[in-house]
Amino acid sequence: MNFRVLILTLATFAIGTGTFVVTGLLGSVAGEFSVPIESAGHLITVFAVAYAVGSPVLVTLTERVTRRWLLVAALALFAVANGAAAVAPSFGLLLAARVAAAFGAAILTPVAGAVAADLAAPEKQGRALSLVIGGMTVAWVVGIPLGTLVGDEFGWRASFVMVGVLAAVAAVSVAAVLPDVEKPPVAGLRSMFAVAGRAVILAVLGITALGVAAGFVVLTYVRPLLEGLTGFGGGGIGAMLFVFGLASIAGNSLGGYWADRRGYRGSMGAILVVLAFSLLSFSLLTVADAGSWTAVLGAVAALVAWSVAGFAIIPLQQYRLIQTAPESRNTVLSLNASAIYLGQGAGSALGSFALGYGSIAALGWVGALCAGAALVLLLAGIRRAKGESAPERAAA
Length: 396
Fold this sequence. Notes:
The protein is mostly helical and 396 residues long. It folds into two domains: 1-186, Growth Hormone, Chain: A, CATH 1.20.1250.20; 188-396, MFS general substrate transporter like domains (Growth Hormone, Chain: A), CATH 1.20.1250. Helices cover 84% and strands 0% of the residues. The chain is built from 16 helices and no strands. The protein has helices at residues 3-20, 26-33, 37-40, 42-61, 67-86, 91-119, 125-154, 156-177, 189-196, 199-219, 222-230, 234-261, 264-285, 293-324, 329-357, 362-395. The termini are far apart. The model is unreliable at 388-396 (pLDDT under 50).
């Protein structure tokens, strides 16, 4: 495999670790700044919303910048923002640092994928793209559990320092190894908005956002939820998140395999059903005795099923968008990335609402409702497609 593509994988690994490591730090952050844990969850919400809004706009506005130095600048911004988070004296400044980090990630991730495709031979572009995207998945397996353990051992600020160092190393590596690649043609914002306005594209993006939101209702507060169910400390929770990360690799592979072998609609329907029931299980398990075998094994099973289903969504959605708008694949995939982060922000906000007006037991069923809404949108699209095809068959 091209070594230069591996450097881009290191970059997305740093971004993925910095994006999600906060999920294991919310309790510590809330304690230090004396804010409710549901308010601490806004650290995930603001990052996701800033990414969702900023990614297509920032990538479009920076199309004239050389790709190599744009990647270096994005990683440098991400590193500095995480360094600022590590020394933030107030919760408000910590939120501001998360917004700055989100802007760096919003540029880096889509540009890294495009550069990887340019660097690879035509027959290996798919593998290059999957390798770069895999950096985000490896972050679940290695980066996030490691960040959780570092936070438990040295304090939550040390976790942000770790992410900043990872991003700085990636920036230096990109500057030293990556060659200059051809800049893409300038398309402009008008073209992006035209594609985004198509009803079928909006429906697919809606399923992406709802599916991701379902998982993030729980994921934002997964540590206190798992602690309450299992009675585990930092090491045990880190191990469970490691299992979650391993399952995410299987889910990502399964989504791509089903897209090729079984098609979109049936596969997505099955995945959303599994997602809904796995998230609902967390609410049902709260009635079991904390630390009991029932609660521990049930939590592990629900965690694995949720991870497989949740990570299978993304490749299926990318497949659907490319099939729907092959002439605008770059645009629709960037919009799908925005929908992913919009779903993350909405999910964490809904989780905060559920905690504020209910209890931690409410997280599972709120997440399941989001998955159910995605399933309804999918079924509505299937019915509409069948209705549109009936007149064509009659005319024939």
